[in-house]
């Protein structure tokens, strides 16, 4: 039986908005991870059947099918096509799913699943060109900004601002520990960039984690969305720049090429959820994915639930009963950053590194997405 296996995954360091990666065009940045994954695996690019790349704000330098353009910039043969997809924050996680589905169906043998977002150069919502929701939609559903939805679920689930801030501080502390211990070293490719000041530098580390963050400092931040609210910049994901890529192929092709895969993709699940509160999708998706995979919550060694806002992983913990120690052990988007279209593959690369480090077997990735959706992926270390 054909299975989709992961040969390797790589990512750029994640840069803060208007920071270390802001001088790099997103199509150039995406080309760098495509070149690096080929260099690391030794697979000839002419064997790649497709490049599937997630990108949310497909306008300006991210328009025109950035997957195809990045492949050409990377020097891949013109025979290698590329397509760009948008499932909001889960765009590159969906790229992983589409790659696996194409392989399992027998349509393709080798696919690059990737993602990119330069939120410095192509601001969030710029692709909407100032438009709002259709009245036909708002007549049926309450459509909120994600920050308002985060406020709402914090209220529904009884989460205090102190709980949200404590979780956010822990995200930074875990990320800083991971950096000090070199846990991200395998997945991050050194990247040569020109800084805003004009200096050229090799970047090897994410810029998001803040060593000076304290619970007192978080407590002083003003609410971002509603007066006297609980959600602020410190317990929300960071606006960031970054790119990531994973090489996925069939187990049959890997054997034919004499390549030992690191992981196999066990399950691919996508669900819709209430668009007015958005963040319940990973809960629904986790339960569905575990049933489909014939696993239970205790079988999973590591959970990566995207930290779009602190309430999202906290309500997921409440509803699933998962072990909190297994959740985002190296920090999440609150500390590391959330380059929208790249985050799915970024999380995959981090989970692969962590499962290798602890000798774990199964990992589960859950991604909340705008308008009430979620992707959930289960992988197994081989």
From TrEMBL:
PANTHER family referenced in this protein's UniProt entry, alphabetically: ACETYL-COA C-ACYLTRANSFERASE, BLR7806 PROTEIN
UniProt keyword Transferase, yes or no: yes
Name assigned to this protein: Thiolase family protein
Domain (Thiolase C-terminal) ranges: 262-381
Gene3D superfamilies (UniProt xref): 3.40.47.10
Stored Pfam families: Thiolase_C, Thiolase_N
Source organism of the structure: Peribacillus glennii
Keyword Cytoplasm: no
Keywords, comma-separated and alphabetical: Acyltransferase, Transferase
